[in-house]
Amino acid sequence: MPPKTSETSSLPPHKIIGVGVIWNEREQILIDRRRQEGAMGGLWEFPGGKIEPGETVEECIQREIYEELGIGIEVKDHLITIDHTYTHLRVTLTVHHCRLLSGIPQPLECDEIRWVSLDDLEKFTFPQANSQIIAALKQELGARG
């Protein structure tokens, strides 16, 4: 017997996404600009992607970052989980701090990449759900002193 679901076809599709806030040794964060032709094209984002069946969030973040940017990372502490509904899509973003381990980031699946300071994040235009990530980062780092 199939499991009961409360979802109907009128709801937008739901994607569960692992997201990495990647730090370098200079306390800068890696962001990338989405390709113009896709959904939310041209906006900046924290890199990550959809979790595949049988994959942990940490494995997803490592795989996606390697595929998108060609770098090796260590996935560290969980920062925040965000549920957000756009008109065309529902997303659950599971966000972890990450540390660059190896390689030089390359824009393999995006238009551009940048290392930026936490204070400079507000100069870039992100998808709506990402504003909660930035707020969580500022709150967490503010609490550290």
Verbal overview:
Mg(2+) binds at residues 48, 68. 8-oxo-dGTP binds at residues 34, 45-48, 130. The protein is of the alpha+beta class. It has a single domain (14-144), classed as Nucleoside Triphosphate Pyrophosphohydrolase. Helix content is 19%, strand content 36%. The protein contains two helices and seven strands; from the N terminus they run E-E-E-E-H-E-E-E-H. The strands form two sheets. A four-stranded mixed β-sheet has the order 4-1-6-5, sandwiched between helices. A three-stranded antiparallel β-sheet has the order 3-2-7, with no helix packed on it. Strand 5 and strand 6 (90-102) form a beta hairpin. The radius of gyration is 16 Å and the shape is globular. The model has no long low-confidence stretch (mean pLDDT 91).
Index terms:
single chain; alpha+beta; Nucleoside Triphosphate Pyrophosphohydrolase; four-stranded mixed beta sheet; 2 helices; 19% helix; DNA repair; DNA damage
Structure at a glance:
With 145 residues, this protein is of the alpha+beta class. The protein has 2 helices and 7 strands; from the N terminus they run ββββαβββα. A 4-stranded mixed beta sheet has the order 4-1-6-5, sandwiched between helices. The protein has a 3-stranded antiparallel beta sheet with strand order 3-2-7, with no helix packed on it.
CATH topology: Nucleoside Triphosphate Pyrophosphohydrolase
Strand order within the widest sheet? 4-1-6-5
CATH class, please?
Alpha Beta
- Compressed to H and E, one letter per element, the order equals EEEEHEEEH
Overall tally of domains:
1
* Number of helices, where a helix is a run of at least 4 consecutive DSSP H or I residues: 2
* SSE class: alpha+beta
